[in-house]
């Protein structure tokens, strides 16, 4: 049974970090939608904008899962994974907002992914 505990913790930390990254990236999409649907810049329009409310809700979930991540993982190892947000955003904006993906987007995202991979190799050794 004691041998299973490290394996369970290993699985949970990656689930928690994925959920944290997912909810943060989704909050950005809701923020973009809120910006597109604000008719005038009054504070009331922001407060009652359903997209803005959804964005805040996603950020609450992101904060919860980030705290759970840090229970199982060092900050110096967990934080680089937040770079995956760029991958999610690139995909979301292409499909949801028809934003173009440039060669620079692909190269930059590839560099981020290579960095995350290198850090994960260090972590597993």
Describe this structure in words.
This protein is mostly helical. It is built from 6 helices and no strands. The protein is flat and about 55 Å long. The two termini are 23 Å apart. The mean pLDDT is 88.
The shape, in one word, is flat
Percentage of residues assigned to helices: over 70%
Q: What Rg do the Cα atoms give?
A: 17 Å
Structural class: mainly alpha
Beta-strand segment tally: 0
**Biggest sheet layout:** none
Question: What number is the mean pLDDT?
Answer: 88
Q: Helix count, per DSSP?
A: 6
Cα separation of the termini = 23 Å
Residues in β-strands, percent = under 5%
**Helix-strand string:** HHHHHH
Low-confidence stretches: none
What oligomerization state is this entry in? single chain
Structural topology:
Elements: H1 4-37, H2 43-47, H3 50-72, H4 75-78, H5 84-97, H6 103-124
Summarize the structure.
The chain is an all-alpha fold.
Write out key terms for the chains shown:
mainly alpha; 0% strand; 82% helix
């Amino acid at each position: 049974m004691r041998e299973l505990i490290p394996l369970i913790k290993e699985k949970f930390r990656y689930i928690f970090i994925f959920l944290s990254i997912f909810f943060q990236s989704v909050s950005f999409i809701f923020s973009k939608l809120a910006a597109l649907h604000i008719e005038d810049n009054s504070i009331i329009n922001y407060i009652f904008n359903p997209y803005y409310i959804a964005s805040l809700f996603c950020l609450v979930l992101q904060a919860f899962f980030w705290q759970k991540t840090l229970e199982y993982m060092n900050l110096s190892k967990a934080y680089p994974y937040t770079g995956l947000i760029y991958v999610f955003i690139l995909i979301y904006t292409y499909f949801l907002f028809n934003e173009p993906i440039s060669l620079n987007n692909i190269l930059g995202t590839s560099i981020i992914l290579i960095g995350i991979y290198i850090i994960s190799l260090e972590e597993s050794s």
